[in-house]
Every structure is written in C-alpha cells, then in structure tokens.
Design brief:
It comes from Cutaneotrichosporon oleaginosum. One of its GO terms (molecular function) is metal ion binding. This is Putative glutamate carboxypeptidase protein. InterPro entries: ArgE/DapE_CS (IPR001261), CNDP/DUG1 (IPR017153), Cyt/Met_Dipeptidase (IPR051458), Peptidase_M20 (IPR002933), Peptidase_M20_dimer (IPR011650). The protein is α+β, with helices and mostly antiparallel strands and 478 residues long. It folds into 2 domains: 295 residues, Aminopeptidase; 126 residues, Alpha-Beta Plaits (2-Layer Sandwich), CATH 3.30.70.360. It has 15 helices and 20 strands. It has a 6-stranded mixed beta sheet, sandwiched between helices. The protein has a 4-stranded antiparallel beta sheet with strand order 13-15-11-16. Strand 2 and strand 3 form a beta hairpin. The longest helix is centred in the last third of the chain and has 20 residues. The two termini are 21 Å apart. The relative contact order is 0.19.
Length: 478
C-alpha cells in the first residue's frame, strides 16, 4: 500500500497546468552560468527561487560562495540557494540538491523552438526548453511537492533541507568549500540525501542510480624544433613530434577498448553477486544503445558486458590532437609541438592519484623506447573520483517503493558512465548515503538542441519525489 497521502497525489493531477506554468516561468529566465552576458539572469533566477520557496513556507536565503574569473573579469560566483522546512527531532531529515543554472542555447544552434520559452508539443506531450529536464524540471518538482502540502494543510512527512546551486554547468566552483564550511551548521543532523540530476537509461523504465564513474583528463605534449617546418625540406631528417605522439597514443587503448596501461586491469574491483544480479535485471536491449549512437558499432552484442562497459568498468577515450594542421586543404607542415588529449573514466579502486601514477610511468617509459630526441611531458588536466554507494540502504528502499507506487513497475538499478562531481563532495564531506533519483527520460537531450521533458515525467516525477519522502518517513533506519 502506498505511503503517500492520496490527497497529495490527487492535488498533483488537478494542478498539472499550474505546475507547467511554474516550469515555464523558470525556463524563461536564461540562467546560463558560463557566460558573463547572463550573470544578471543567473542572479535573477536565484532571487526567483528564494521568492518561490519563501511563499511555500520554506526558510530560504541566498548565500555567496566567493568569486571567479569569467570572460576575463573577476565576478561573484552565482549564489547557492538554501532552504529548510521542519525541525521535528522524531522525523528523518533529508537533503535535496538541484541546480538552477543551464547550458547556453541559441535558436540558430538548431532548435525548433525558442530555447528559453517552454513550448509544449500537443501531439507528444513533450515540453521543450533549455533546462526543462536539466535541471529546472526536477527542481520545480520539489517546489510542486511543497505547494501541494502547503495548500492542503498537510504536514511534510520528513524534515527537508534544500540546496540549489547556480554553477553546476560550469564546474560547481567553490561548492565543496561551502559544504565544508557549513558541515556542522546548515548541513548538521542529516540522515540521507537525494539528487535528481540524471535520467532513466531508456524511455520506458524508471531507475535508481547508485554509482558514477570518475574521470581523469590527461595531455601528452611532444615538442621538438622551435618552429613549424616544411616537410619537403626537413622530412626524413628529424624526429617529428606528431609521429612520436601518434605512436604513444596508439599504445593507450586497443581497438576493442582494452586499456593497455599496465596495472589498470588489476585494480578493477571484482563483480559481486549482488551487483551481477542487478545488472541482469536492467531493462536494456542492444537496440537502445545502437539508436543512441546512430549505428551498430558496439564492442560486443552481449547486453551485460555492454552495460558494464558503460557503467562499472573503466574506459579510455582519445579526444584529439592540438597543434596539428586541421584546416581544409593540403598543408605540408611538420608541427613543432603537438598535444594529445585523452581521458580515463575511472571506477572504484581506480582513483585520481593511483591511476595517474600508472599513466605517467607508462607513457614516459614508452617514450624512452622510441629513442626520440624530442621532449615529452604528460600531465593531468583535471580529475574526479568515482563514486558508489549502498543500493540496499533504506534511502534506496524508500525510492524503490515510491517508484513502484507511482509507475507500477520496479526500477532498474543503474550506475552512470558519466560524472556528477558534486555527488562525491557531498558524500565525502557529509558522510551520507546519496540516492540519485531521476525524473527525466534517456532521450531528453540535456545539453543538446531541443532539450525536453515529457509532461508525464514532469507530473509523475512530482508524485515520485513526494512519494519518496513519505516512503522515507515509513522506512526503518538500518
């Protein structure tokens, strides 16, 4: 029997139009965090959120988190918006996170609609607009839950704390410092946490996410002469940097995706029985990934191996070469210095530090074998640790029951191939079990043109978030 108050669920159905209007108002504020031109709009979005939360009975405020350089100017970072409602010591206290900033978007990028105008498609029920699914739709879902309880005079089933940031799309600068500074203040007394900033694996099956791969981004710089040279004059007389670089990059990963750096394979955590069973239950077909990539280029036709390759095993990808001639035409140049870029998506046991040690040693050793007179420098551009949590925690049990109650089906348990660095910051600093509870579908097109959220996902997502809080209140702590 669902734990959610039926009056709450009925209210959501009856106020569908008002909830869509709320999302429309949010989408119309172009809160692009990575462009100084939109700085006032980002601030306006924060003010709008504080106003909404305050009207809904939340004690809310903006908090500054420092400065950064944007478009060559030092400016204030977008503020975080924090809020709390309820302080009953007999209730669990849950922290929810979302972000109110969005990626850039212009109509001429290929949008069918104005990106900062929420545009419903009456035939499909899709709601198009920048931020509709990433992440304003889920944030509005939390506001919708609060509105329903306020208007119905219902007490919230848990104590709720909220943090909404305005810098997620630009690296969440200084958020970790804010979390650390408020660890024993605003963030004191928390039992668990929920983040809704990811998506279903497909378009049909809800999921709960309990892991994220990390990412280490590397550069190999090979330098030789002090200027670019003519291949007709100097070809065959010198060690060419591009030749050295391509040889080095060819030694990083095989055509079948095997990472060739010694020691990496040995660090991969073995698959547990519980994990194997969760992967076997995921609703996934090879056609799902083939449709997503626009062809049949998968390394294997085995669904479990494909899922593990995407979610729980490390991968190495080559991204490009800087300094090489790439313009149209035929230019017979020998570049004097080139930089190769690659990344490793890391998993538990493969952290930033130990993986980087293996990478640096291997590439430097391989370069020595070339006998080249060029110079080679390898560096880590940035690194983010992998994250995995206990999917059997009462936090996940509550979300599982809520999903069944709202959607009538059990959720898949997934791990994301990408990274959400703030998850690790919250987990490490606050020591919480964190649930990733997606609202949108796998085809929503976050960061892309024609980003959308299906109306059914937005409305049912509101029910899901609210039902999760009721189920969380009913769960016994482990």
């Amino acid at each position: 029997m669902p734990a959610a108050d039926p009056k709450f669920l009925k209210y959501v159905d009856e106020h569908e139009d008002a909830f869509i209007a709320r999302l429309k108002a949010a989408v119309e504020i172009p809160s692009v965090s990575g462009n100084l031109e939109y700085a006032k709009d980002v601030e306006r979005m924060a003010d709008w959120l504080v106003g909404q939360l305050t009207d809904l009975g939340v004690k809310a405020e903006k908090r500054g988190i420092g400065k950064h350089t944007l478009d060559g100017k030092e400016v204030d970072l977008p503020p975080v918006v924090i809020g709390s409602i309820g302080n009953d010591p007999a209730k669990k206290t849950v922290l929810v996170y979302g972000h109110y900033d969005v990626q850039p978007a212009l109509k001429e990028d290929g949008w069918d609609y104005e990106p900062f105008t929420l545009t419903p498609d009456p035939k499909t029920g899709r709601l198009y607009g920048r931020g509709s699914t990433d992440d304003k739709g889920p944030v509005m879902g939390w506001l919708n839950v609060l509105e329903a309880h306020k208007d119905l005079g219902l007490e919230m089933p848990v104590n709720l704390k909220m943090i909404f940031e305005g810098m997620e799309e630009s690296g969440s600068v200084n958020l970790d410092k804010f979390i650390e500074s408020e660890k024993d203040k605003f963030f004191a007394g928390l039992d668990c946490m929920c983040i809704s900033d990811n998506y279903w694996l497909d378009t049909k099956t809800p999921c709960l996410t309990y892991g994220l791969r990390g990412v280490n981004y590397y550069e190999i710089k090979v330098s030789g002469p002090d200027r670019d040279l003519h291949s007709g004059v100097f070809g065959g007389t010198i060690h060419e940097p591009m030749t050295d670089l391509i040889l080095l990059m060819s030694k990083l990963v095989s055509p079948t995706g095997e990472i060739l750096i010694p020691g990496v394979k040995e660090l991969i955590a073995p698959v547990t029985q519980d994990e194997q069973e969760k992967f076997e239950k995921i609703h996934f077909q090879m056609s799902d990934i083939q449709g997503a990539v626009g062809g049949d280029q998968t390394l294997t036709d085995d669904t479990i191996k494909t899922l593990m390759g995407r979610m729980r095993n490390p991968s190495l990808s080559l991204h490009g070469i800087e300094g090489a001639f790439s313009a149209p035409g035929s230019k017979t140049v020998i570049p004097c210095s080139v930089k190769g870029k690659f990344s490793i998506r890391t998993t538990p046991n493969l952290g930033v530090e130990n993986t980087t040690e293996l990478v640096l040693k291997y590439i430097n050793d391989e370069f020595k074998k070339l006998g080249s007179k060029n110079r080679c420098e390898v560096s880590l551009g940035h690194g983010g640790e992998p994250w995995v949590t206990d999917p059997n925690h009462y936090n996940f049990r509550a979300a599982h029951k809520a999903t069944v109650a709202v959607y009538g089906q059990e959720p898949d348990y997934t791990r994301e191939g990408g990274s959400i660095p703030v998850t690790l910051d919250f987990a490490n600093i606050l020591g919480l079990n964190i649930l990733l509870l997606p609202v949108g579908r796998g085809d929503d097109g976050a960061h892309s043109t024609n980003e959308k959220i299906d109306k059914s996902n937005y409305i049912n997502g509101t029910k899901l978030l609210g039902s999760y809080l009721y189920e969380l209140a009913a769960e016994k702590k482990d």
